[in-house]
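=== RUN LOG ===
request id: a7f3
mode: sequence -> structure
chains: 1
length: 258
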Amino acid sequence: MLEKIEKIVRRAGGMMLAAQRRGTNVHAKEGIGNYVTDADVAVQRFLQRELKRLLPEAAFVGEEDGGDVYREDGPCFIVDPIDGTTNFIRSLHCSTVSVGLTEGGEPKIGVVYNPYTGELFSAERGKGAFCCGRPIRASGRPLRAAVVSFGATVYNRDLTERMFRTLRGLFDRCEDLRQFGSAANDICQVAAGRMDAFVELRLCPWDYAGAMCVLLEAGGKISTAEGEKPPFGAPSTLLAAGAGCYDEALEVCRRSIP
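=== RESULT ===
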């Protein structure tokens, strides 16, 4: 099953690259800096068709319209056809195709692919995490030696003050901060031990469902910024980190709560 999903995701990544080469229409969504392109829609339709063909009984939840309602009582694909649409529009080469398969409310398979770099992150529950077929492992660095990536909750400006309190708290304790614009990519970088933590105060399940499985299988930890299990049926805050800095990063996140 994992190998079949990987092949489908690679084809979806090829669609993304082809759309960028020929150009694609951009449409504004609700909120500041929130866009959807014709490529997002086309890639999601392709993924929905191919993944449902692979597992007909599974529900399908995607960022764009046309999917199902998330359910826990069976398998469910949770998909972001292009995570990092603004990066895609601006040719920043940091956008991913993300597919998560959950079952019984738990992550079962995760595949995240950046077609610009050719890096494909994948995991199946209980079988480890990989990047292009090579095993990966989250770091054990403490927060004082950590490089932390973040999302700025640009669509939800009501969270700006809390977000910057969180970042200031992390910056005072960590080595440095980074922002890349794709949550799925950032979480996988934590899984690979390149980054040590990632935080954002408003994400949807398709932003993290695929990468969540990869991180957990790589020995990392993931929760809401309040320390709870991230939901698959609703938006959430998110903290993803290596085991060495998770507890201290969570303490910082909790202190930022108004």
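=== NOTES ===
The CA atoms of residues 150 and 199 lie 5 Å apart.
Helices lie at 2-22, 38-54, 85-89, 160-173, 183-191, 205-217, 246-255.
=== END ===
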